[in-house]
What we know:
The structure holds two protein chains of two kinds. By secondary structure, chain A is mainly α. Chain A has eleven helices and no strands. By secondary structure, chain B is mainly alpha-helical. Chain B has four helices and no strands. Chain B has helices spanning 2-29, 33-53, 57-85, 92-122. The model of chain B has no long low-confidence stretch (mean pLDDT 84).
Amino acid sequence: MRLSGYEALFFWIFALAAIFAGLLTVMARNAVHSALFLISSLVSVAALFVLAGAEFIAGVQILVYVGGVMVLFLFVIMLVNVGAEEKGRDEIFNKQKQVAASLIFCFLLVAGVLYAVSEGYKGMQARNTTPPEQIAAQQAQRDRSLAVGATRTSRITDDTEQVGSSLYRYAALPFEIASVLLLVAIIGSVMLARTLKQEVSADDVDPETLQEEKALDPELAQLEPRSE
Amino acid sequence: MLNFFIPTLAFLFQQASGSRLSQTWDAATHPDLAKFLVIGALLFIIGVAGVLTRRNIIVIFMSIELILNAANLNFIAFSRYLQETGNANAVAGQIFTVFVIVVAAAEAAIGLGIVIALYRNKETIWVDEIDLLKW
Lengths: 228, 135
């Protein structure tokens, strides 16, 4: 795969944007700033997905990550807001020795991964004997067979169609398992986020713990008798 | 003698550096699979650094999202590569990415539920103060 022309330009713009936004995510003092930088990083990566010809995944990325997961993150940041961090009183990183050790580890990981990528890519190129011109010609051939858009300047991709048919043809069972996983996650997060009062009124507290908590908070005793 | 050598050396040097420069320029203006993999690797390392160095558990979760996203980028890049060169199921990478996104969403929901429960009980989101499992 070789991008060229404006694709290459946009590749570099979005790649640098993704990496800078990722760095700022990790370095921002305020957790809300972190979340916003992460959103811009995710959007840049979605743009890279479009450049790699995965329009459907780019849309899913923006809808699910930016529209769903990040909003969840922002709500939780609001619920557990810690003022000391934002005012600069509290340290946002771990102790210096831990940070130094983990940064050394990360640099080693960078070196190892980059070496592995370059060596592996050389091997892949050696194995791949088709000349790039021929691949580009094949790609152009495939593009010509796509339907023309309404403006007649572009063609309509069939990526979504391919992903959809492939998802139900080859990955039907994992698809069902994923839906069960999401159900478990919904129920689990609802169970985890209940308050003690909600747990008491649902009669879901260990009797010993309940006695201890009642001694601390007499209001709980009023909630407890629940005859059905 | 000198009249002969200096222009020759200059020519050779120009040739060598010129070809290397044009190679670099060609590689930069035609990003290929390796560039995608490098970007994915850098995002992954940034995420790992965030997980290892930050104290705020919510930012650690965000770094995990960054790591998963880097893996997605690699899947998509290889999917495109296989579409052009291989005869494997060409959109397998994209399907895998869908599942990674599903698992990331489930993980975020559960993790943030744990964060809320933890904050109710311990009144802190600093990971070095959360040591319930230590004795």
